[in-house]
Amino acid sequence: QVQLxxxxxxxxxxxxxxxxxxxASGRSFSNYALGWFRQAPGxxxxxxxxxxxxxxxxxxxxxxxxxxxxxxxxxxxMVFLQMNSLxxxxxxxxxxxxxxxxxxxxxxxMSPSDLTYWGQGTQVTVSS
Length: 128
What we know:
Layout: E1 3-7, E2 10-13, E3 18-25, E4 32-39, E5 46-51, E6 58-60, E7 68-73, E8 78-83, E9 92-100, H1 104-109, E10 117-118, E11 122-127
Parallel strand pairs: 2-11
Antiparallel strand pairs: 1-3, 3-8, 4-5, 4-9, 5-6, 7-8, 9-10, 9-11
């Protein structure tokens, strides 16, 4: 059974940093794209960043480009999101997602409802 477990969320002041982690289990994820989405209160879930399977190309939402960095460790079945220069508008629940044999760009263009594998989410709160 596929399981994704996020960690690393918390409360941070604007301008600060957090590093989110997502541990994947149940199978090898080396041929899965792994990504991060977020959902703020009253808003739809939105794409944040993704990393492709294989060569590991990345894709970012414009709102986080230059501030967030996604990376993966295939040996440990983990994906990370380093978040720097955090802003109050980054406050949301952050979710890890996985999809087989797609690129990061494809994950960006997919509706969240089309993705099968999700974690339970981790809260990130950025105070002003």
